Amino acid sequence: MKVNGNCHCGQIRFTAEVDPSKVVVCHCTDCQVFSSGAYRVTVPAPIATFFVLGKAAEYIKTAQSGGTRLQAFCPNCGTPLYSSSTDGPTQVFLRLGAIQERAELHPTLQIWLRSSPSWALELGSIPGCQEQEALEVR
After folding, report:
1. pLDDT band at 94, cuts 50/70/90?
2. How far apart are CA 138 and CA 124, in angstroms?
3. Closest Cα partner for 72 from 115, 2, 16?
4. Model's pTM, two decimal places?
5. Residue 29 backbone zone (phi > 0: left; psi -120 to 50: alpha; other: beta)
6. Stretch (H or E) spanning 92
7. Pick from 58, 3, 61: which is nearest to 28 by CA?
8. Most CB atoms closer than 10 Å: which of 20, 38, 105, 123?
9. What is the pLDDT of residues 8-31, one digit of tens each?
10. What span, in angstroms and rounded, lies between the C-alpha atoms of 26 and 43?
11. 124 pLDDT tier (thresholds 50, 70, 90)
12. 20 to each of 39, 43, 99, 112, how far by Cα in Å?
């Protein structure tokens, strides 16, 4: 499936080919910090199909294992865009929030569940509304 992505301000745009059956929700603590949320959703794309317009800022993260990963984000608006290995990458892991077709990409696997806040797996039981009107009555 071809996907199109961009940061919030539009300074960086990308296209790639992804397999919709490979969408992953990661609950590790690094992903929680990088996403400022309870988890991060990614989909891998072969690096040969990944084309980017604009220059992303890069941060190299060192994992507990000692391995390193490049984290790319917009230097203007801060939108997280993708990550990859720093050692001869063959694929990039696209951030679902930056992909225009994200509604069509349903997660098929969750990892690092031991790090997940208990409420993150129970969102369906929490009351909600279509926009933010519920905040006005609190």
Report:
1. very high
2. 20
3. 16
4. 0.89
5. alpha
6. strand 91-95
7. 61
8. 105
9. 999 999 999 999 999 999 999 999
10. 11
11. confident
12. 19, 8, 12, 20
Q: What are the tens digits of pLDDT across the range 30-63?
A: 999 999 999 999 999 999 999 999 999 999 999 8
The residue behind tokens 């063959």 is 90
Which residue in the block uniquely carries the two structure tokens 């959703």?
41
Which one-letter amino acid corresponds to residue 60?
I
Residue identified by tokens 């939108």 is 79
> Residue 66: what residue type?
G
Q: Which two tokens stand for residue 53?
A: 């317009």
Conformational region of residue 136, where left means phi above 0, alpha means psi within -120 to 50, and beta covers everything else: alpha
